[in-house]
Design brief:
elongated, five-stranded mixed β-sheet, 14 strands, alpha+beta, Alpha-Beta Plaits, four-stranded antiparallel β-sheet
């Protein structure tokens, strides 16, 4: 499979996908818009929000024998489109580390990345038991235990950005066993 990144209007990703599917219902390209669940306190009440993992980007999956060039004008004509990555003149599939990062959220974490379960070892390092943070321990920049969030750094092409992912803290009990 080949995966392509499309830059669309930030906070308009979901609208873009809905609009594209309404305009071109027969298009066979699979479109992914990975999201994450994050608890946000508003006026003292915890609210679950679904936010984009890659703000301003959606991802396309095409079969190897299918060409992006046969579909590019459908995507370009849809309202909210900015550009293909690397550029509209040089459309290239994702590869290497970029592809691994995107597939982590598309395939492993699912369309809506939930809350990870973690604990802290004797050296106060975070250990991920399961969830979307699994495999991204090396990308963690900051941990906020009180809010239950980990700030991670993600790279896509030559751009780096940080996002928060939520976690549930598992408490160790006697004998270093965890209550799961």
């Amino acid at each position: 499979m080949n995966y392509y990144a499309v830059h669309v209007k930030t906070q308009g990703e979901e609208r873009y996908v809905r609009l594209f599917r309404a305009l071109y219902p027969d298009c066979t390209v699979r479109i992914y818009f990975p999201q994450r669940t994050l608890s946000i306190r508003r006026k003292g009440i915890m609210v679950q929000n679904a936010l984009a993992v890659f703000p301003g980007y959606i991802f396309l999956e095409l079969d190897p024998e299918d060409s992006i060039f046969s579909h590019q004008w459908q995507f370009r004509r849809t309202e909210g489109f900015y550009r293909f990555l690397k550029s509209n003149q040089n459309i290239q599939p994702l590869g290497g580390r970029d592809l691994e990062t995107v597939l982590h959220f598309i395939k492993k974490a699912g369309p809506l990345a939930g809350i990870s379960r973690v604990y802290f070892d004797e050296n106060s390092r975070i250990v991920v038991v399961d969830g979307p943070l699994a495999g991204l321990e090396g990308n963690i920049l900051k941990v906020d235990k009180r809010k239950g969030r980990a700030k991670i750094k993600l790279d896509l092409y030559d751009d780096s950005f940080t996002i928060d992912l939520g976690f549930e803290l598992l408490e160790p009990v006697a004998g270093r066993r965890l209550r799961l």
